[in-house]
Amino acid sequence: MKVTIIDYGAGNIKSIQFAFNRLGVEAILTNNSEEIKSADRVIFPGVGEASSAMNMLKKSKLNLLIPELKQPVLGICLGMQLLCNFTEEGNTQGLGIFDVSVKRFSDALKVPQMGWNSITDLKSPLFKNSNEQDYMYLVHSYFAEVCNQTIAKTNYGLTYSSALQNKNFYGVQFHPEKSSTAGEQILRNFIEL
Amino acid sequence: MLTKRIVPCLDIKNGRTVKGVNFVNLIDAGDPVELAKEYATHGADELVFLDISATQEARKTTKDMVLKVAEQVNIPFTVGGGISSIEDVSILLKNGADKVSVNSSAVKRPQLINELSEKFGSQCIVVAIDAKQVNDKWKVHLAGGTIETELNLFDWAQEVEQRGAGEILFTSMDHDGTKNGFANEALARLSKMVNIPIIASGGAGSIQHFSDAFTKGKADAALAASVFHFGEIEIIQLKKELQKQNIPVRL
Question: What does DSSP say about strands A98-104 and A142-144: parallel, antiparallel, or unpaired?
Fold first, then answer.
């Protein structure tokens, strides 16, 4: 099993590598397109601001490579948001894998949402051995709306997509690598897809 | 529903845990990694490491420690103490810290908050504020409460939010170490004034104190050190009790 974590300069991605290592799975950090194409599993991470992250992707032409990938791909946090059509953050065009827009939480709430919230209405092999109401760690100011590609929902002021799936593309808003044993289970499920 | 967070805080000096820590099943209670793992498996939602080393040399050890914690611990953690530049933050985040907290350096040069949040994103920038009441006014203090500044707690909190802080860690120096409860009135006022999460710190002595910090103080998270380190309060027990009182927690 070869797991590749796309390293395009966005944020703390070592934690994801460490999380796979704890599961006994080797994961490499790279922006090399051959390494990414030949991997069994691809992780598309992202922390930080959407438009600058998208610019970094474009610089290394990863914006063209990612939509062509055929193996299971998991977008995490901003990675998931960049797989959507559009995000209000920096008015950024996404990669359009998920047919949904990303919006900012209302200022009536504390923004960012920071901490542990539960995931519900799970429907995907990504959650094979997970439980309804499992708690996941989230840090985000923008959310993907609910759509027909929603595979998990979370409530923060409103109900939004905490996970999405379109064919071989999966996206999670939460950080499985920081979500204790419940998060590890999701990474394991992703490996076993 | 977003849950309230329980956050143990570990003081670190030369890469080792300081303050007495009384954990029966630990081989080495001075090893921050062992302690962090212990807390992670026993219900802590997040951890804070506060580097109280006096020298830059000693702080380098902390950066190595951060890497080891990130390798082995599966919950988020914040690192604070002596952080004053983009380079400091960059190394800590690269080594796997999820958030960093700045305190004195932000008071001395507030623009630092803007620079850090623009470079790394607000989500990983915590501003720690130590304050105590002087003539009925909440004054921000530096250097563990020894240096009084002219800054008012509430003004400063609003300013750090505007500058891009993602979270505020508020320690009441009047309550810290007393075990008489958190500064709930000030907390509630802060929570109403700013739109970012507030971590309450200083004063935890009983389960009810945590409950009050969340209900009366409207805090989003509560931090404590000795009550956890000495096993006076077990986090799982604390959370079960909070749940009974209808406070949302992760169990």
Answer: antiparallel
| Residue A8: per-residue pLDDT | 86
B98 touches chain A (CB under 8 A): yes
Residue A64 Cα, gap to closest chain B Cα (Å): 25
Place of tokens 């380190």: B229
- Torsion sign, CA atoms B191, B195, B199, B202: negative
SS3 of A107, please? Answer: coil
Q: Is B51 one of the annotated active-site residues of the chain? A: no
Which 3 state secondary structure label does DSSP give B240? helix
Contacts of A113 in chain B (CB under 8 A): 2
Q: Say if B5 is an interface residue toward chain A (CB within 8 Å).
A: yes
**pLDDT-above-70 percentage for chain A:** 98
Under 8 Å between Cβ of A78 and A50: yes
Of B40, B70, B123, the CB nearest to A18: B70
- Kindly provide the ipTM of the predicted complex, given to two decimals: 0.93
Q: Answer whether A177 sits within 8 Å of B120, measured CB to CB.
A: no
Q: Which of B68, B63, B60 is nearest to B79 (CA)?
A: B63
Please say if the pLDDT value at position A103 is more than 90. yes
Element at B235 (helix H, strand E): helix B235-244
Q: In the A/B pair of chains, how many CB contacts fall below 8 A?
A: 96
Helix axes B32-41 and B56-72, enclosed angle (nearest 10): 40
Question: Which chain A residues are Cβ-neighbours of B166 within 8 angstroms?
Answer: 112, 114, 139
Residue-wise DSSP of B180-219: S---HHHHHHHHHH-SS-EEEES---SHHHHHHHHHTS--
DSSP for residue A34: H
Q: Is the pLDDT of residue B28 over 90?
A: no
B247 φ/ψ sector (left φ>0, alpha ψ -120 to 50, else beta) = beta
Chain A residues with CB-CB distance to B89 below 8 A: none
**What does the alpha-carbon distance between residue A79 and residue B72 come to, in Å, rounded to a whole number?**
24
A112 closest CB neighbour out of B97, B123, B221? B123
- The pTM assigned to this predicted structure is 0.94
From the list B3, B70, B120, the residue facing A14 with the nearest CB is B70
- B19 within 8 A of B25, measured Cβ to Cβ: no
